[in-house]
Design brief:
The protein is α+β, with helices and mostly antiparallel strands and about 150 residues long. About 20% of the residues lie in helices and about 40% in strands. The termini are far apart. Keywords: Dioxygenase, Oxidoreductase.
């Protein structure tokens, strides 16, 4: 991981629309379309389907707001910052580096094409926010989503 690969800060919130409005009113943020998806993921307890709602800010530095999902890692963090997201050219390798530095994998998701490659993963250490690794192969899709932000 390198600092220049940091591309967003994720914040889990109980009211997505109210939080979006607050950031817009206070700091002038614009937002992408809100995406709702049943995300397939793997946790320590096995495979799960997570109903997620999320949105990105329209400009850098990016904020990602995610709606709370009880019983998962997607609950508000005491610090306010849930995770920091990094692009990764090799999620599996970068995840191994995080694990060798005392972090624990909480959840990960594989490409649905059956290739066995990781699309993203979250790791948590004894201090600090979670780190999300996102395959750089997702960058065009996410960039397309960012373009949906209203000016």
């Amino acid at each position: 991981m390198r600092p220049e690969n940091l591309y967003h800060t994720g914040i889990v919130v109980d009211d997505l629309e109210a939080t979006m409005k607050w950031f817009t009113d206070v700091a002038g943020y614009t937002w992408t379309d809100v995406v709702s998806v049943d995300q397939q993921a793997v946790t320590a307890d096995g495979e799960v389907t997570i109903p997620m709602r999320m949105v990105y800010s329209g400009a850098d530095p990016r904020l990602e707001l995610l709606l709370t999902v009880s019983g998962t890692v997607w609950t508000p963090a005491d610090s306010g910052v849930h995770h920091i997201g990094y692009w990764s050219d090799d999620v599996e390798s970068d995840l191994s580096t995080l694990e060798s530095n005392g972090m624990t994998v909480e959840v990960k998701s594989y490409n649905p094409d059956g290739s066995g490659t990781l699309l993203w993963a979250y790791a948590k250490g004894p201090t600090g926010p979670r780190i999300e690794l996102v395959s750089r192969n997702m960058e065009p899709f996410i960039a397309y989503w960012w373009n949906s932000a209203n000016p």
